[in-house]
């Protein structure tokens, strides 16, 4: 089965170690909340602003989840440090989109998936199925793997922070953009398909992609 | 797009601290057996009450075993034409902990067996599936997996979906909840005035969801409702506004009247914040009727990402057996105006609602029914 999606808007941001030019101070003026945000949460907030999506259904994908909070917990346990309650609450995979829902008062359905290297591929399939309900939805993927000693396990990812957002809706029109074959060397495989679509997105034309279920 | 195909739960299997199969699980719940045990293996200087599976087998062996049981009892020869939908909040964290605590570094951590996708990876090493997807929304993970299963069958996209809710005990979750000061040192007593917290637990719960009714025990998955609190990362909305919306949405999706709900299997973790929010929501929504309410977490513990799936199995068995399970440990009611089941109640019931709530204000309600 195939479902076509119109990409209404798209954005992607990335950095070798960190994405440097985030506007979190402007987007989250309250310092107490801002301090608690994880890197992934800050990236999601940034992306929502870039594609102008405040409320509606959000579907999020991440393969590695909140790696820094997880690493902090492991280190606290191993070295008998105090385990931070904030690290624990921030370690769940749905942390980033939960913070963004709180900040934008978005009370809609918000789901998080994690399917290893195929996370963004599976997110697009899920998004296509959800889009059959005929509302505008947001698909967003992040990976934030910039933690101490990541080089012990990371041999091939150059961009340790990346985030991609697609605002989409169902379309009956033929596909206008093909996203296979776009080079994503140095990025996590888990974001590959959605990153390719964001790269191929052209604001001057209609952007339709075909999703094979 | 056809959106009204009926969705059936045709068979299921589970293993938890409350039993090595579903019949034992339900009997344990109805007879209020003690299942939650004191444990010092995660925090040596503190008594914590946890729900450990009693088995010599490794967790991943149990995972495969439960899926095999479901396949053997199904009309399928294999899972080649089946979508695998996993709900887990822990994934392969136990693997990472074991390696990191031994090696003191990440060098031997295999990312394939670290993340949420680990459950899918293990299952795909044993079975072939048409496709797979894993949901990870903390304690609503497998409720959301069930919701997605309902949606893809209802929309006519897939015919067979295997939903797996699986979370093992881990240092991260046990010590993490301890850091939040919400763990009890005895079996939890949801809704009791003297409750003192929750019990972290582990389970595997597997349900085969299909577009055809395969046997007389098949239960219809009638409705799913989602919402977000948009309130706080760990505290539910005090008025239960998100919970109300999730329950309303599920009942609306099931195309039934609110009066049709005869029993609610509550999220009921045994924490003050959850119980107050959920009961406030139930009282607010169910004004015209007063369905029975119980939490089965005093028996199963809180199985985190597996909770939605194991409580779905309990809800199915409530309908199959026409028995409403009791609230174990509820001696002094804290919040009045709720129809708590104090003992098992035999009742003619057609629709049951099951609630799951999670960190980040993620709410999912499911409606199960007897196909008329």
Give structural notes:
The complex is a heterodimer of chains A (213) and B (372). Chain A is an alpha/beta fold. Helix content of chain A is 33%, strand content 22%. Chain A has helices at 24-27, 31-36, 39-50, 67-78, 85-89, 95-104, 119-131, 192-200; strands spanning 2-15, 58-61, 110-113, 137-144, 161-171, 208-212. The model of chain A has no long low-confidence stretch (mean pLDDT 96). By secondary structure, chain B is an alpha/beta fold. In chain B, 30% of the residues lie in helices and 22% in strands. In chain B, helix 5 (141-154) packs across helix 10 and helix 7 packs across helix 8 (272-285). Chain B is globular. The model of chain B has no long low-confidence stretch (mean pLDDT 96). Classes of the chains: A alpha/beta (213), B alpha/beta (372). The interface between A and B is large, with 53 and 62 residues.
